Amino acid sequence: MEALGKKKGMLKSILKQLHEGANIEEVRRKAKEILRELTPKDIAEVEQELIKEGITREEIMKLCDIHMEVFKEALDTSIDLPEWHPIYILMKEHEMLLSHVKNLEGGDLEETAQHFKEAEKHYLREENVLFPYLEKHGIEEPPAIMWAEHDGIRQIKKEIINALKEKDENKFDEKIKMLYEMLLKHYNKENKILFPTALKVISNEEWIKIRKEFDEIGYCCFIPTKMPKVEEKEKEVKGKIVLSTGNFTKDELEAVLNTLPIDITFIDKNDEVKYFNKSKDRIFVRTKAIIGRKVQQCHPQKSIHIVNKILNEFKKGNRDSAEFWVDMDGRKVYIRYFAVRKNGEYIGTLEVTQDISKIRKIEGEKRLLDWK
Description:
- The chain has helices at 2-19, 24-35, 40-52, 57-70, 72-75, 86-102, 109-136, 141-165, 169-201, 204-217, 250-259, 304-316, and strands at residues 241-243, 246-248, 263-268, 273-276, 321-328, 331-342, 345-355.
- It is an alpha+beta fold.
- The longest helix is centred in the middle third of the chain and has 33 residues, at 169-201.
């Protein structure tokens, strides 16, 4: 263990030398012996330590290509995985995405835009499923660097689409070449460092969960082999309300529901009011006295027949929603009813009410980076 720590310390020294502009061939000779006993996970961890010591992510990103060149021999390891495995899928998509970009000729706007749209699922699966699992195992900086590179890829794709719209063939060809080179380097880093690191730290049980979440987002390029059926047992978390996508304490759940910028009221399959949230600026008055009351008794006589008609359509499965909007004290109020179903069975109706006056005035864009 001590020897491994020493090797990692030497590796850190080598990376610092590269950062300071050392000759690649000279560093490669020094690195050859050290890298023989280190894994891609060790390299990822050392890069992570360097960022904590002050080297920025941007600087690490610039150095990554040099790292890959120095570590080339040590990282030439094959990965043998079943075809249902998430890493197998991502690596297969790498091959196909590279091939498709290389063959993007003729400047067809519709084809290019559609390809870019479908390819986005690849990056979304990494960012929203694989990266969080790596972070749970303490691998935080490498995913952050890869995400930053994803954003760079997205930017070039926008420039390619703009070149097509402007019918600028030279710019299109130039940007396609840039994209291909960027993807080639990016995929190489993931295949040689990020993915082997993931395979080292993520358990088989977790890979099964990852694959299920991959399926929810969807795929590009090809339809992967189905995963073998495996029974999963829900783990109980003491003092928590466990849901299929996470868990809350009672206080957390209540606070979240009350923080929603909407009023919600839930009635069960027997038309009885079971719950309402206490949003800050509730539009329609609700009191605890209505809990257990029939929803028909919460409406004026003249509208009960419409309430019953909506509920009957929901229960029959003919409709899933109903919406209305009214003017109240200078506000535009949007009222929606949603059929709530579990495994296809009707279990109640959710009323959602919202003041959309300010929303209707929104124009242009205000992005996260514009926040002050």
